[in-house]
Amino acid sequence: MGEHSTSNRLAVDQPTRGADRNRSLADQADPATDGMLLPQLDDGITLLDVEGGRGVPILQSLVLDHLLLHDGPAFWVDANGHATTTTLAQIAPSQRLLNRIHVARGFTAYQHYGAVCDLPTAVNKSIQMSTTDARTAGRGTPGRDVDTSPHTPALIVAPAVDAQYRANDTLGETHAKTLQARTLARLATYADGYDIPVLVTRNERNEFTEPVATVADHHLECEQTRMGPRVVGEDFETLIYPVDDGAYYQTTFAYWRQLLAARATQVGVEPTTPAPSTPTPEGVGTGVTTDGKTVAATADPLLDAWTATGAGGR
Questions:
Q1: Is the pTM of this model over 0.85?
Q2: Can the peptide bond before residue 301 be classed as cis, meaning omega within 30 degrees of 0?
Q3: Residue 163 scores a pLDDT above 90
Q4: Residue 23: CA count within 13 A, CB half-sphere
Q5: Cα separation of 194 and 89, whole Å?
Q6: DSSP structural state of residue 32
């Protein structure tokens, strides 16, 4: 009919693709389309390669989306400041979600490797604390995912997994490769042992980081386009998001925040408004708010969960 636009006619004629379904999820909660908000993280190691930058919001969006769909905490072995609370607090639909992210930071190759080695100890400590708290509170409500427990890990995150090994001047090339290989082997062991996804990124694509690609079971590529970041995986592709008036959503930070809010509503997590910024302990650092104000930054509600003496790093 004459009143129908060209875009509407094309929408009828073209087959529906996964990314096209993302736009409807922003308006309605449909469990049948769970996997279409953001790429699903499957068990095993997933390598996220981001072109043209570190891709911190992209990485954090994948982590938060996974936690919304699965019970249990995430254990994050950080390098190069990827676990920044500034963007995490902005993009998270609920501040309570951040309490499930446990962070250890390694500022040298040995600290990073030590934090990875200490992860099972941190997991066991977390399980003991959460089960004790649950018994004390008398909680017995089942989680949203029958395949996961609120006490056992849901995800392991290791961004810039190569950064400290290539940057440490105390390591020769052979020792750096060996230590990185041991880190990757442990992460693969955790993925198998806990039956969970392990999400990693790398700073550069070159011969030194080829083992990261080799050990990965899944690969996601993020390309910086004129319309915003575009993610492509084995079963997922981010396209543009048309709306009825002919305009287009960009695949940007703001849109991912909207998608995560829709996901939170979908799974029954009530979105919360971030609390006003307040002064924090010295030594944590500062951040800049969206209106340009400089405020003190805090690691809470992220938890520096495991830092064994002489091994893990803060």
A1: no
A2: yes
A3: yes
A4: 16
A5: 27
A6: G
